[in-house]
Amino acid sequence: MAGVIVADTLQDGAGNSTAMDNAIYGSAKAWVNYNGVGQSIRASYNVSSVTYITTGQYRINLTNAMVDANGCAVGSSSQNGNASDNGRGICAAVASSSTINVGAFATNNNTQTDQSFIGVAVFR
């Protein structure tokens, strides 16, 4: 059965509450866990596809566009999936209301590289 819930605040069992705006505007509008070497999406929310542009460059395509291009993209990457793989970096930027550009690089020489583990989230 479909329905609508109308509320001004959310409250947990301990009585802690937060305004609905925090739940709506504080949640990621999209996220993806992507294999940049094998070009495959492991898991995602509101991501229709990832386009491989060239070595170390990707474009994330959103299923449902944001209201504008004023979002904030954050990301992380590694080659082997371990936190100790600190020789990798990522730059993610909102390019439009429906695309996020991603650049992945090796931090020791700033060379763009394809990376096995790329995670990007977008907030608006």
Detailed description of the structure:
By secondary structure, the chain is mostly beta strands. It has one domain (28-123). 5% of the residues lie in helices and 54% in strands. It is built from one helix and eleven strands; from the N terminus they run ββαβββββββββ. The strands form three sheets. Strands 5, 6, 8, 9 and 10 form a five-stranded antiparallel β-sheet that branches. β3 (28-35) and β4 form a beta hairpin. It is elongated. The relative contact order is 0.24.
Write the layout of secondary structure elements.
Blueprint: E1 9-11, E2 17-19, H1 20-25, E3 28-35, E4 40-45, E5 47-54, E6 57-62, E7 72-78, E8 88-96, E9 99-106, E10 111-112, E11 117-123
Antiparallel strand pairs: 1-2, 3-4, 3-11, 5-6, 6-9, 7-11, 8-9, 9-10
